Amino acid sequence: MQHTEQPKRISYLDALRGFTMILVVVSHVAKFLDVETLSPGSFHYYFNHFRMPLFFFISGFVFYKAGFVWNRVNIKKFLCKKVTVQVISPLIFLACYVHYMHFSLWESLVDNFKAGYWFTFTLFEYFLLYIATRKISDILGAGENKAIITMFLIGLFFYFFPKQWLCSESLPPFVSDTFGLLGATRMMYFMFFVSGAWVRKNFASAEKILDKSYLTTFAVIIFFVTSIFFDTHSFNPYLQKITGLLLSLCGITIIFSLFRKHESFFSTDNPASSLLKFIGRRTLDIYLLHSFFINFRLPEQLLSIIYDNPLLEFAVSLLLTVITITACLAVSAALRTSNALAHFLFGAQKRP
Questions:
Q1: In this structure, are residues 277 and 15 in contact, taking their beta carbons and an 8 Å threshold?
Q2: Whole-angstrom distance, CA of residue 331 vs CA of residue 325
Q3: Phi, psi of 156 (to 5 degrees)
Q4: What distance lies between CA 34 and its chain's CA centroid?
Q5: How far apart are CA 264 and CA 275, in angstroms?
């Protein structure tokens, strides 16, 4: 395996991953309580613009390794490692969850959302698409930069492709089940994964751009002006897509800039930073386990009150998220007492 000099270590990356994981769990808790609203004024309305794009952006950012040679040996080694934690382990948790919830395993598998377990399967498909594009590019002598440009164009195609065509009731069951099994509608985030890899590849240049405050200022203005003063749901479908893409990129820029600006805070071992970074290092554990712990039942009177109060709703959802993540980390710690389970289920390094 050949490597060139790696980009510098980013002290706030784990904290950023932890923050994103918290946003995901908050959303799932609110959905389960049926208090999540995506209308202007709701916290979820603003977070929804960039939450999953940011998750995939960070995934691409972490995935990219400078100078990594995608030859047959390295591809086999990489896929053998990833298929366990991205496909086999999530399948086990999915099977346990659908049994716990009395769902149909097959119906969950052919659903694009996989009963909430779609992310790892989709991410593995992104790995395959990225590697395949890189290999074809190498064979054609096109180089890494052209490969990334090609992948970004592929991502744009997936992003703008009408999802309703893949979910049409007029499709034969075999075709619709195949699309669902592959999570075809989730391919829309591929461009953010590629964007993350590209930023990591050119991070020194990206830092210089972020240091020029005009970019962040522009992103903040566009994000909040568009979110507050325009009803994006009233736009035609393609204008919605364009607006959604702009808001996603602005949101990613704002959050990344925010964590970079406070890099000194996250490079220390203060309690808040340490906790956020620990959550960031356990994102897979939390993702695989949290569905088992969000079966909350609140009194109808409380639900009716918090539903009309975005701040209260978010506060309650966040409190329940803290409880959920605590439970996930406790179960994760128990499972990780076995080195074999820690490695197989969560991809932890093997220890002697």
A1: yes
A2: 10
A3: -60, -40
A4: 22
A5: 16
pLDDT in tens, 99-152: 999 999 999 999 999 999 999 999 999 999 999 999 999 999 888 899 999 999
Cα–Cα distance measured from residue 288 to residue 293, given in angstroms and rounded to the nearest whole number: 11
Q: What percent of the chain has pLDDT over 90?
A: 62
Place of tokens 């009803």: 231
Q: What angle do CA 63, 152, 171 make, to 5 degrees?
A: 100
Please say whether the beta carbons of 143 and 208 come within 8 A.
no
Tally of residues, the chain: 352
pTM of the model: 0.92
Give the Cα separation of 7 and 240 in Å (integer): 36
Structure-token pair, residue 224: 């909040």
Q: Please say whether the beta carbons of 318 and 43 come within 8 A.
A: no
3-state secondary structure the chain: CCCCCCCCCCCCHHHHHHHHHHHHHHHHHHHHHCCCCCCCCCHHHHHCCCHHHHHHHHHHHHHCCCCCCCCHHHHHHHHHHHHHHHHHHHHHHHHHHHHHHCCCHHHHHCCCCHHHCHHHHHHHHHHHHHHHHHHHHHHHCCCHHHHHHHHHHHHHHHHHCCHHHCCCCCCCHHHHHHHHHHCHHHHHHHHHHHHHHHHHHCHHHHHHHHHCHHHHHHHHHHHHHHHHHCCHHHCCHHHHHHHHHHHHHHHHHHHHHHHHHCHHHHCCCCHHHHHHHHHHHCHHHHHHHHHHHCCCCCCHHHHHHHHCCHHHHHHHHHHHHHHHHHHHHHHHHHHCCCHHHHHHHHCCCCCC
Our CA dihedral for 123, 128, 131, 136, rounded to 10 degrees, sits at: -140
